[in-house]
Amino acid sequence: MTYILIGAPVSLYTGKVRGYLRWKNIPFTERLSTRDVYKADILPRVGWPVIPVVIHQDGSELGETLQDTTEIIDHVEAREAGPSVYPDGPRQHLASLILELFGDEWLVIPAMHYRWAYNRDFAQQEFGATSHPHLSPEEQYAAAEKAVGFFSGSVGGLGVNPDSVAAVEAAYEDFLAVFDAHLADQPFLFGSRPSIADYGLLGPLYAHLLRDPKSGELMRRLAPRVANWAEYTHAPQHCLAGDFLPGDEIPDGVQELLQRFAAQHWPVLKATSEALATWAKDQAPGSEVPRILGFHKVVIGHEDTVVTTDRAIIPYALWMLQRVTDYRDGLAGDARQSVDEMLRSIGAADLIDFQLPVRLQRRNYKLALAD
Questions:
Q1: Could you read off the pLDDT of 60-108 as tens digits, one per residue?
Q2: 3-state DSSP: the chain helix, strand, coil percent, rounded to 5?
């Protein structure tokens, strides 16, 4: 077992990594992120309390510590044999990067909303059981109250408030309908092999929206294929099987999901980029980027059920967006023309040739301006 995954069943991003490692057929040991594990392993290695953390026991004394889910997956992809979760076709590859970004950084909105609006007691018990496994269930629940207060209080920063709840839920139910219809034709987003986009969607859809009881009931009722996909994509399965669709095909359902990204998430990313440009003017290269750069007005919802609301400016999503733009910029000729046509077709023509105002990097497990 050369990999140790430190996380929790209740954790959105742990679910993303766990599902990937299982499909990739990577032997790993999972360690529950108790308070003692935070003190002994996570804080000394990472410097701040966060999960998941993966330790690659690579022969060095302490092993290599990995934290961000995308970096964890890319680390394993570069070092372990077997089929890749990154499609070779330029359109499928770019689309998979976009939908990983959409899952990681936009579907977190309904994931957090449904958890704390409808599943609070369940989640609080889960947090307590993870942090304090030696206590009684009653003591675990009480011990998790402070952590639950912090996480439940963060939904406002995502743009969730009494005025926006209907819009958040309408957009989520529309997403479920589109994805469920797609899964009638394909087991995964791009065929019979899971992509990085499948794992980007898996985090919020499995660990929060399916596993939490009330939102799980909703998913099973409205989108049973999505519920089955989430269970299968997360569970141990016949690993390393399947293929991406030939001809670099973008299925109609994936096209519709990309249109949701362009209509809902892309405008927020552009506004966040503008805020980053303003902040970065007075910063030295290598400066750590704050987790929040203030607040701005954003539009949340779908079609007739939309609102304008306050939301925190969260720059981390721009590091994920930089992966999208870097990949597109590295293409030439027919490949570039093909992905640009796809971007126009989903309503994201201004993503063509888009550049962030500054380059970003992850340094010491945090977001920073490039040196």
A1: 888 999 999 999 999 999 999 989 999 999 999 999 999 999 999 999 9
A2: 55, 10, 30
Residue 1 — pLDDT band, cuts 50, 70, 90?
low
List the structure tokens of 147: 């952590």
Q: For residues 192 and 180, give the distance between their C-alpha atoms in angstroms, rounded to a whole number.
A: 16
Burial zone of 193 (CB within 10 Å; 0-12 exposed, 13-18 middle, 19+ buried)? buried
Closest CA to 321 of 100, 158, 171: 100
CATH topology of domain 3-79: Glutaredoxin (3.40.30)
Angle at 264 between CA 201 and CA 353, to 5 degrees: 95
Cα pseudo-dihedral 52, 58, 62, 67, rounded to 10: -20
At 155-193, the pLDDT tens digits run 999 999 999 999 999 999 999 999 999 999 999 999 999
Name the phi and psi angles at 249, rounded to 5: -70, 140
For residue 271, report the phi and psi dihedrals to the nearest 5 degrees.
Answer: -65, -35
pTM: 0.96
What Å distances lie between residue 16 and 180, 196, 243, CA to CA? 19, 10, 20
Calculate the average pLDDT of the chain.
96
Parallel, antiparallel or unpaired: strands 28-32 and 3-7: parallel
Long-range pairs for 244-247: beta carbons < 8 A, 24 or more residues apart: 244/87, 244/88, 244/89, 244/92, 244/190, 244/191, 244/193, 244/195, 245/92, 245/186, 245/190, 245/191, 247/89
178 CB neighbour count, 10 Å cutoff: 20
Look up residue 43 and give its DSSP letter.
H
How far is Cα 215 from Cα 116, in angstroms, rounded to an integer? Answer: 10
Instruction: Take residue 53 and report the two structure tokens written for it.
Output: 């953390």
Record the tokens describing residue 202, joined without a space.
């898996």
